[in-house]
Amino acid sequence: MSQPSAPPPPIAPAPPPSTVGAGGVQVRCAGCKLILTVAPGVTEFVCPTCQLPQMLPPELMKVQFKTSAAAAAAAATTPPPPPPPASYSPSLPPPPLILPAPPSSQQQHVPAHGIDPTKIQVPCAHCKAILNVPHGLARFTCPQCNVDLAVDLSKLKQFYQPRPTPPPPPPPEEINEVAIEVEREEDEGGLVGETFTDYRPPKLSIGPPHPDPIVETSSLSAVQPPEPTYDLTIRDDLESSKALSCLQIETLVYACQRHLQHLPTGTRAGFFVGDGAGVGKGRTIAGLIWENWHHGRRKSLWISVGSDLKFDARRDLDDVGANCIEVHALNKLPYSKLDSKSVGIKEGVVFLTYSSLIASSEKGRSRLLQLVQWCASGFDGLVIFDECHKAKNLVPEAGSQPTRTGEAVLDLQARLPEARVVYCSATGASEPRNMGYMVRLGLWGAGTSFINFRDFLNALEKGGVGALELVAMDMKARGMYVCRTLSYKGAEFEVVEAPLEDEMMEMYKKAAEFWAELRVELLSASAVLSNEKPNSQLWRLYWASHQRFFRHMCMSAKVPATVRLAKQALNEDKCVVIGLQSTGEARTEEAVTKYGIELDDFISGPRELLLKFVEENYPLPEKPEPLQGEESVKELQRKRHSATPGVSIKGRVRKVAKWKPASDGESDEESDTDSAHESTESDDEFQICDICNCEEDRKKLLQCSCCSQLFHPACLVPPVMEIVTGDWSCHSCKEKTEEYLQARHAYLTELLKRYEAAMERKTKILEIIRTLGLPNNPLDDIIDQLGGPEKVSEITGRRGMLVRAASGKGVTYQARNTKDITMEMVNMHEKQLFMDGKKLVAIISEAGSAGVSLQADRRATNQKRRVHLTLELPWSADRAIQQFGRTHRSNQASAPEYRLLFTNLGGERRFASIVAKRLESLGALTQGDRRAGPTLSFGAYNYDSAYGKRALVVMYKGIMEQDSLPVVPPGCSSEKPETIQDFIVKAKAALVSVGIVRDTVLANGKDSGKLSGRIVDSDMHDIGRFLNRILGLPPDIQNRLFELFISILDLLIQNARIEGNLDSGIVDIKANVIELQGTPKTVHEDQMSGASTVLFTFTLDRGVTWESASTMLDEKQKDGLSSANDGFYESRREWLGRRHFILAFESSASGMYKIVRPAVGESIREMTLSELKNKYRKLSSLEKARSGWEDEYEVSSKQCMHGPNCKLGDYCQTGRRIQEVNVLGGIILPVWGTIEKALSKQARQSHKRLRVVRIETTADNRRIVGLLVPNAAVESVLQDLAWVQDIDD
Q1: Model pTM greater than 0.70?
Q2: 977-993 and 946-959 are packed helices; what angle lies between their axes, rounded to 10 degrees?
Q3: Is the pLDDT reported for residue 577 higher than 90?
Q4: What is the DSSP string of 723-774?
Q5: β-pairing, 1127-1131 with 44-46?
Q6: Alpha helices, DSSP H only, in 364-498?
Q7: Which helix or strand (DSSP H or E) is residue 605 part of?
């Protein structure tokens, strides 16, 4: 097929281009709309571009048959050639065109051939072209490379039964729509499965059960860890003391076992503890230190996030019975040698934070080298990176620098190659790029299928979320990873939308308008200073403050709801934990330094932020220096004498015409100064009067102190009579000075006027800010409304707080700690008060709460149920998980209730969206299944994805009128196009006001009043910027823009789902009967751990018998849930002489209908009633329905929906009741590249994607999770794995 340059009308036949022999027609592809040329005689074909199988429309069939008959007649007149060559198909992927085979003399005129179903397809051994070989032909020549070939017929027997001669072709028909529909559904994969299964150590039975239910994602639970071979020295101690649960002991065994291995690079292998927050990682680490202590490894490094956690480390060591091991806090030690006499640390645990890992003393000694020196060479003790997500960003996204922490973590591992490294973190691998420092896992580098980390990262990003899930499974199978989570059973989730109250709404509107005006004001103020470069710093600060300000507003908007929910919880005898990110400390401290420690009311964070921004960044012209009085003429003369160049009106230096012509060779300045020297130091003979040019009365000559000219007193007009003493200036100079003074004065006055006007504007703006109604600092506000510091524990990083005076009037600033408690211990003290039940509300900020346990601990006095309110969701989901893990931990009397608050402002959902995105992938890599993040309710808010970016571009183009919008904007109707136009104008103006549309110009002429502008490329895809900026719009337009964005996003995702391109992670393959076929074949084995990659083949029966279909319908009718349209239907059209039958009944989503087909069971996609009635008609006769249903059920067991002549032959599974499915299970990473290569050669788009599936056999419930290998790709995967099946078996 070839493609002509000018597209003719779609259906009408057109003269064929030269590449086609005699005849042929042109049609437009039903899929990609390209013009295709179809060779004579062909009625069914596959588009080479989009791979869609299709047929010619009936009106072109006649043309086609005429041309093919003519071609056949021509062929008949040519004598047949001696050896029959195999016809060759060069460029077309199977399944291509079906063409009549031509004799060789015609070879040069006739197009290349596709697959001929009447022959056998064999690849040429030399050039790999697919050849069509007639049955029984054993020797022939390849028409492509002219090599002689032979076929071993005995080996081909079982692959190719000679096909019976096909029946005459059925009358031409259109494409089977039902088949396409079913095919799409199959490509989409099954339903996304449930996520968690209860966890018990599969291969170890030492130790008591864990005190709380623990779960593991079901994809991880499908993988078995290696056999435990390590024998614990402290096993007897542990069994008697019951200090560690069976789960924690399992971690000990696998970690010690892994530490006995070395990676191909020669370094010792490391272990990754990925247990969720609150499972008891601290105790597990203490157990590891204790076990190594018994082996004589007496030095360990424990690196964590906060120095407070040292107390927890001490507690954990005591719990496992290791009281004799000292814990030394590095931040309290000098920088000298740790094992020197003065410091005297010979053994024990050195506890340090990530920040001290990069610290150094004034003398330049670094902590890192101090530690390496203490460990000494050949060190094989433990190095624990606790909460190791703090070392992330070693491989940052493009454009930013790796963090020093990440580099230090890498450096420490490189300097201690024999150290036993343990990585611990509940969120360590939430994004694959954060794994860059985990070099001891051996996932990339020598001996793996990835050259370096970048290579590993690219493969994962290409594979999508399914790939992340495989990595986790892979690590577990190789014995280097455990990842269990506290079951969130009992924990309740609720996303609480706190709509803005009217007063707040008004406040918000005014603030949004103010920021827009401020932007215009700053633009015009900057324009006045046009001689300066555009101030990019100013705009950076402007947008940063803008975002902070509105984020603060959103937080304050939730205060009433927070207080309400907190009081309600306290009334129900529960206690409350409120989580937020920022405490507003900086604003408070600035205000206290500005206004003193006694204030009328709490500080308004947003107001202080605005004041500070305008105060420091309002562009002012320079303040001019005023003239000191009327500068004395003499002063000026002296000035002018010493610096002849005068001053221009603009205040810039300029050259003044010289009184004496300078000699050619000198520059102006030189001649200038030289002439001055000449005048005073020259010989007497050069002194002549400048007026009369005489030399008489030399002694009487007066010299002007300004222009240095000489005059006789009598020659001057008027003549000078009195004796002149001191400086004297001539008349012309005096005049000049006066002029100059006046001009200078006018100029300065003008400058001063400008400066004062700008100052006045600035003061006015500051005044407006002071009068704006803005909310108070949320933290102080909540503490105040919930009863003040006596009732509320504050666990944050701030040093002081504002407290309302006892009289209720005014507030005072006071330090958070009292005389008895140091600042360092104040958070520990507050936590204790909460756990003892002396205070029932705790407010935690991220800075103060790392690693703190606030659960309803069975050891604590306060065991009331915790209600955890998130006032502000953290910037990243890792942090959200950390925050949720404060109140949900092991050994708790009750699970917490979570209330995630956000306002009804479109843009504010952004913060939830970020968390949702991170949770999705958190669930993914850290837990092997991305739906595992506790917040299942968050999925709806994930905007920052590839689809989100595409939706944003579509929306921007629609608003800028470069393209039409694919959906009707909210609040508009398609009947009234003017409403849409009105929305676009408003939206464009809104985007201008938040700086997304730049370089705006108001058009005139026929488009007068229209705004034109552009959106720079970097903004086109920046979702973060869009969601941040629209926060600064008035609520109504903000929400309309946001809804428009969401509806476009939904549309794109819907389309991707229909086309089968949506990556939904792990999908479950469901069928009525699933059986494992034969024994699984091991196709690869990992040398180090002995784990293997296995190919499983399953047989699925997906059909629904007539009996079960009628039962389904009866039950619906019994329950009284059926609607009038429920029942059996047949398709309105016939394909290959048959109609398709279905059962349809109304689903829980009203107006939608569930479809059940005889061959493939219940379909995932539901149909609308109109679509159902359009494609199918309801059957009144049950007898007719029954015979049709049973017939389709029977036929579908042997053939696909495309009928007996399907071009894919036995490979095609579309609509087959009995299917064969191949899954590659076990460890996948080592063979990743091979599989990717094999899949990339597949013909169908949906087969090229790596798809992770979960399948469970119906008889013995054996669960396998792995990569789905399309049947057509199995051979090439096995060949590439250098595993070739013996052809006889």
Answers
A1: no
A2: 110
A3: yes
A4: PP-S----HHHHHHHHHHHHHHHHHHHHHHHHHHHHHHHHHHHHHHHHHS--
A5: unpaired
A6: 367-375, 404-415, 453-477
A7: helix 605-617
